[in-house]
Design a protein that fits this description.
With 346 residues, the protein is of the alpha+beta class. Helices cover 28% and strands 19% of the residues. The chain starts with a strand and ends in a 21-residue tail after the last helix.
Length: 346
């Protein structure tokens, strides 16, 4: 690991000042950053520890029913809070599908959003990777593409974004609150992560020195709480990134889908909001034919590993089917699992 300076500011202004210096990186839970530093994929000259900054480790409900979650709230705390799980069950299921219990106790909400889009070549110093070394090339292009992007990739990079949480946040229309040297601003989560294009070394819209301070869920997102699911297909049932994942949210009125949200994970360099599928579902019956058409629309234009594209379509349709059956009364024993057989709300 490259030697680095360590700074632990007590105030947000001080943290932003230090974070704006070249070579700086913010440290929260460290579950992602420290791993990348150990492999040499990340080589910051200075770590700015934000764990002592006041106010970032709590959440608050708005009068309209919306929720603001501080960036330093631990994943496990948000997932296990009964009020959060009741209002946004797909987010709770996504959080509990990620990593392991120990890591969820350390990982933070803001840090989860900041996870680096990457594949296994990113951490391998002997393989060319445009994200790690711009202009080096992309070793993934000539490999078995099962674990890589089928949507939104480019010749420069076909890595996928690893977050479970962000797939749910994309479907819930979450907003990212950002502080920086120029003041405060916000951006929709769906716009926060960047597609690789010709320059994949930049993976978010954060400017130098900027810091996520909170995530905000609008009150309208709680309107999907009765028909909300997150499903994750992976090679093992814990501590594994998604091969494919899906968040499906439905609002059903008089036997018809009044509104639908669908977001996919593991298929693109960013959480993938399937707006074409959502448009098809509005006004449709919540049945197998409607969900099959929506799944086809969600993967329109996909290219790469044919079996992965098929899996993504099937998982999208299955997530919509399970959402239509109703949100589980309790988070399943295997959150996100396609094999969970739970009793739903009526």
């Amino acid at each position: 690991m490259k030697p680095f300076d360590y700074i632990r500011p007590e105030r947000l202004g001080q943290a932003l000042s230090e974070g704006a210096k070249p070579g700086s990186a913010y440290l929260a839970g460290g579950t992602n950053l420290l791993d990348l530093m150990k492999t040499g994929a990340a080589r910051p000259e200075r770590l700015v520890d934000i764990t002592r900054l006041p106010g970032l480790d709590r959440w608050e409900w708005g009068k309209d029913g919306g929720l603001r979650i501080g960036a330093m709230v631990r994943n496990s705390d948000a997932a296990h809070d009964p009020d959060i799980a009741a209002a946004f069950p797909a987010m709770a299921e996504a959080l509990l599908s990620g990593a392991s219990g120990q890591l969820r106790n350390a990982a933070t909400m803001g840090g989860n959003v900041m996870q680096q889009t990457r594949c296994h070549f990113f951490a391998d110093p002997f393989s060319p990777c445009n994200r790690r070394a711009p202009g080096a090339g992309c070793a993934a292009q000539g490999s078995d593409r099962r674990g890589f992007a089928v949507l939104g990739g480019s010749d420069a990079c076909i890595a996928t974004h690893p977050s479970d949480l962000c797939v749910a946040l994309a479907a819930l229309d979450a907003v990212v609150e950002i502080a920086g040297p120029e003041g405060l601003r916000e951006t929709p989560l769906t716009d926060f992560h960047l597609l690789p294009g010709t320059g994949p070394e930049g993976h978010t819209r954060l400017a130098p020195g900027e810091l996520i301070i909170a995530l905000r869920l609008p009150a309208a997102a709680a309107g999907f709480r009765h028909h909300a699911r997150y499903l994750k297909l992976r090679d093992r049932t814990s501590f594994a990134f998604a091969l494919v994942s899906a968040t499906a949210l439905l609002r059903i009125e008089d036997g018809v889908i009044a509104e639908a949200r669908l977001a996919l994970g593991g298929v693109a360099p960013k959480p993938w909001r399937a707006t074409a599928a959502e448009a098809l579902l509005q006004g449709a019956r919540p049945d197998a034919d409607s969900f099959a058409r929506a799944a086809e629309a969600a993967l329109q234009g996909a290219a790469g590993h044919d079996a992965k594209i098929t899996l993504a379509k099937r998982l999208a349709a299955r997530a919509l089917t399970q959402a239509a059956r109703g949100t589980p009364a309790r988070v399943p024993a295997l959150p996100g699992s396609v094999h969970s057989g739970e009793t739903a709300h009526v």
